[in-house]
Amino acid sequence: MSNFTKFYESIFIIFFKNWLQNSKEKIKDWKKFFSDKKFDHFERIVENIPKMTPNFLNIETKISVTSTKQDNIHLQKRIKNLLFQLSPWKKGPFEMYGIKIDSEWKSYLKWKRIIPHISLKDKIVLDVGCGNGYYLWRILGKEAKSVIGLDPSIYCFFQFKAIEKLIGKKKNLNFLPIRIENIPHLKIFDTIFSMGVIYHQKSPIEHLNHLKNQLKDDGELILESLTIHKKYGNCLVPAERYSGMKNIYFIPSIDMLKIWLLRCGFSEVEIINQSVTSKKEQRATDWSKRSLLQFRTNLNDVNLNFTEEGYPSPTRTILLVRKKKKFTEIKF
């Protein structure tokens, strides 16, 4: 499992032929990224997880695998102990052979808000900031042709590899532990997801341009961001933390977010959902001891009006956006 360079080169041969020859240094950088001290520890955990062949796999309505072997209590305890060592699990839940990974987020609630508005059948899909890959499996469950996830977190990478080992590798599903700015302007994706990423960017405009440069003409972007009510201004810039979170740079109003998108060349900006995160959707669990939702003033379970720092609490807004076709002048 340690020879990641060959693994990722094989992916790029399929998807990124024209770029591979000029990307040897970037491939080396991926290995350098994995020089994290925790790498060997996490690698051993995943290597010790037994390969399983599910008798039944459900990735359409949830992520669940079952097998006759799950009746082996000793084996089940061993797998659970190994998975638990990869905590904290932020996205999920996953049900692996009778083991429920009760993640911080009930991610299926967000999925239910999105999926009625899009079709993923036979699409080439990119999920930017994919976390541990929960949505990659759900996208594949909607019959996508090919799915790629990007996330530089070592926790997320090994959680994905652990789940992949228990489900079985799918040739049309891959995870790259890099950032979107480290891949070329491919313009091959029909659909791109960027959920909970843009407000972590020092330059949100640059991030949107990276997303646009991966989309085909007329491709669609599912963009989720924290947003503030316009009465608080066009954009909130926290001094330090926001709702307990580090690295929050810009939280725009919806109008400002639309302006950013239009300036970057997107069109047909449609709000498909607005919601306030409740304790039913995000909370601390045994698999993720600390939930960022606890950093809001607890006025009630649904309407948490202010963060602990005194900032207005955000709304989570999901937008469906299309990329404009290039206009070609016709000369007579």
Automatic annotation (TrEMBL):
<keyword id="KW-0819">tRNA processing</keyword>
<keyword id="KW-0808">Transferase</keyword>
<dbReference type="GO" id="GO:0016765">
    <property type="term" value="F:transferase activity, transferring alkyl or aryl (other than methyl) groups"/>
</dbReference>
<feature type="binding site">
    <location>
        <begin position="180"/>
        <end position="181"/>
    </location>
    <ligand>
        <name>carboxy-S-adenosyl-L-methionine</name>
    </ligand>
</feature>
<dbReference type="Pfam" id="PF08003">
    <property type="entry name" value="Methyltransf_9"/>
</dbReference>
<feature type="binding site">
    <location>
        <position position="129"/>
    </location>
    <ligand>
        <name>carboxy-S-adenosyl-L-methionine</name>
    </ligand>
</feature>
<comment type="subunit">
    <text>Homotetramer.</text>
</comment>
<feature type="binding site">
    <location>
        <position position="105"/>
    </location>
    <ligand>
        <name>carboxy-S-adenosyl-L-methionine</name>
    </ligand>
</feature>
<dbReference type="InterPro" id="IPR029063">
    <property type="entry name" value="SAM-dependent_MTases_sf"/>
</dbReference>
<dbReference type="InterPro" id="IPR010017">
    <property type="entry name" value="CmoB"/>
</dbReference>
<dbReference type="InterPro" id="IPR027555">
    <property type="entry name" value="Mo5U34_MeTrfas-like"/>
</dbReference>
<feature type="binding site">
    <location>
        <position position="199"/>
    </location>
    <ligand>
        <name>carboxy-S-adenosyl-L-methionine</name>
    </ligand>
</feature>
<comment type="function">
    <text>Catalyzes carboxymethyl transfer from carboxy-S-adenosyl-L-methionine (Cx-SAM) to 5-hydroxyuridine (ho5U) to form 5-carboxymethoxyuridine (cmo5U) at position 34 in tRNAs.</text>
</comment>
<comment type="similarity">
    <text>Belongs to the class I-like SAM-binding methyltransferase superfamily. CmoB family.</text>
</comment>
<feature type="binding site">
    <location>
        <position position="110"/>
    </location>
    <ligand>
        <name>carboxy-S-adenosyl-L-methionine</name>
    </ligand>
</feature>
<feature type="binding site">
    <location>
        <begin position="151"/>
        <end position="153"/>
    </location>
    <ligand>
        <name>carboxy-S-adenosyl-L-methionine</name>
    </ligand>
</feature>
<protein>
    <recommendedName>
        <fullName>tRNA U34 carboxymethyltransferase</fullName>
        <ecNumber>2.5.1.-</ecNumber>
    </recommendedName>
</protein>
<feature type="binding site">
    <location>
        <position position="91"/>
    </location>
    <ligand>
        <name>carboxy-S-adenosyl-L-methionine</name>
    </ligand>
</feature>
<feature type="binding site">
    <location>
        <position position="316"/>
    </location>
    <ligand>
        <name>carboxy-S-adenosyl-L-methionine</name>
    </ligand>
</feature>
<dbReference type="GO" id="GO:0002098">
    <property type="term" value="P:tRNA wobble uridine modification"/>
</dbReference>
<feature type="binding site">
    <location>
        <position position="195"/>
    </location>
    <ligand>
        <name>carboxy-S-adenosyl-L-methionine</name>
    </ligand>
</feature>
